[in-house]
Amino acid sequence: MRKYYLYMLLLATFPLVGFSQQKGILNASFESNSQYYFNDIAKNIRDKDFASNNYLDLSYRYGKFEAGGTFESYLPNPLLGYATAYDDHGLTKKYISYQSEKLNVRLGDFYEQFGGGLIYRSFRERDIGVDQSTFGLGVHYSPFDFLRLKAIAGKPNFYFDTQDVTLYGADAEVNFDIKNAGVILGFSALLKQEEFTDKRTTQHDNVKLYSGRVGVNFGNFNLNTEFAYKTPDANVLNLYSRRKGKALQISPSYSVKGFGVNLNFRAVDNMQLLYERELDGNGDGRKDEDVFNYKMNYLPSIANIHSYNIYNIYTYQSKENNEIGFNASVFYKFKKNSLLGGKYGTKLKLNSSVFYSQNDLENNKGKFLYWREKMLSEHGLQIEKKISKRYKLIVEYTYQEYNKFLIEDDIQGKELVYSHVFVADLLTKINRKHSIKTELGFMATKNDLGNWGTFLIEYANSKGFSVFVSDQYNFGEEEKHYYLFGAAYAHKKSRISLSYGETRDGYTCVGGICKFLPGAKALSVSLAWKL
Question: Is 350 part of a structural domain of the chain?
């Protein structure tokens, strides 16, 4: 164990100095997240009681040229929730690039997105162990202010190696005005080449993907819509279906001072795109836990995003192969000194999220834009009120119907879970430099695991120091507390945090992407410097 602590110490004391000279600019940053596990469940998953993820990012710019890379280490084990394939160290995200006013060329590892990401998006979310960079050539070219062109050619990365897949793609976007309206038209095309060896069905080696999008901005009104199509792509997650894939997303919005309406509608059928079709048939240790780093498109959940811990018990995740639904939000602010606004005004938010399955995957049947079986129905009201200069209160109520069988593939959760959620969030400003946040949550449900309660109190000051205590308690089946204690300190571009406690199994969401993380009792330490 000593060599791992020494290894981390060497990384942490690396001269992370950003400086500028006539010859160029060097930038560097370091991030380390470590956990020591105290419960047997976590130890059995990782076979060691210590895990650590470490990243050292370096880049050097000289004029219009730049080179960089990331040194990553996951020794002796990666954190829980990260695939075992991370159990290594090495240099990743290597690249050289050239950038001028109209042209940007990058050779090496890169992240890219076409349109809204319905057919292609390579991105990284370290918090949940997702890293989908592509190794190859990426080009951006803008010959005119109204025209933007992209082109890529390369292989998707898989941790410290590349996958046996080749991608070729292009994207074009045109911007123009029609009277008082701004219009954006975009088109994307992508070719995925992968040898198909499975004998359960016939499948071409090449998969073709296309998408078109339109964006309109007219005064206070905005509309964005995109449609995507793919040729058959039989893989283990769509049960080797040879149906074509389709996705439609429509997002209108309207806003004026004190009032706003947002609507997001999406329908997807057989659009879970994988870089490699077999998750566990390669004989090289790649298993189902790696599925997030196989995905080549971006279909995050568009359901209402909650910021309170009580909602993590039943978290909706998008179903790329089988989903239709919408999320609608209405915002209104009652004016100051009005009957309902009071002295400081009052903010009101109404939200509804409804999602259904479209088809029967097991029998390879279904219709596009068909509402088949309910997965989620959620309706909520939030009121935000500044009571005085010292106090601000947020209260929230949500009614939720949650289908565990369809959302989580839980064979024992075939009945809908009906729940009522109540939240109260009070921010107390002691003075200009000190504040206390108190949060209470309660979920009432008669089935599944029963009722839940959450509690959080956090103190913060203007010098960057904060400390918190939280608890999540199950009144029903488990009758168990999940305590968590922590503190953090931030100064300029450096931050350190420390926490101890137990977390439950559940989904963690970042940017609408949700991933299941196993629970653990652990001591956690995080360090970060960025210059």
Answer: no
